[in-house]
Write a sequence for this structure.
């Protein structure tokens, strides 16, 4: 199993990953490092543990917001779909009534 060495908060960590995932792990580590550096720039001196905890909390908050946005969009899509279905059913019903009216006229003629 391959390992990737990533540097976070001044320390190196050897991370095991599946074959072919090395580049992705490196990309994720770079994003995590960027966020940790931004946090220490804005919050000042923090202990190593606090940097990891605060970064994890910020990422969890961002993930939660994305999930909520996704749920909202999905619900809005369902609502729009339901409205289209109702409109289509109304149109079909109106067309069926017109066909019945025409059929009655044909029979009467």
């Amino acid at each position: 199993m391959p390992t990737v060495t990533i540097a976070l908060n001044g320390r190196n960590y050897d991370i095991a990953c599946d074959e072919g995932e090395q580049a992705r792990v490196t990309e994720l580590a770079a994003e995590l490092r960027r966020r940790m550096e931004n946090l220490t720039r804005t919050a000042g001196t923090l202990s190593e543990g606090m940097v990891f905890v605060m970064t994890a909390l910020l990422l969890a908050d961002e993930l939660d917001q994305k999930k909520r946005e996704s749920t909202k969009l999905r619900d809005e899509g369902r609502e729009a779909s339901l409205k289209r279905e109702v409109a289509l059913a109304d149109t079909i019903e109106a067309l069926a009534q017109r066909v019945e009216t025409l059929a009655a006229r044909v029979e009467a003629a």
In short: DSSP finds two helices and two strands in the chain. The chain has a mean pLDDT of 93.
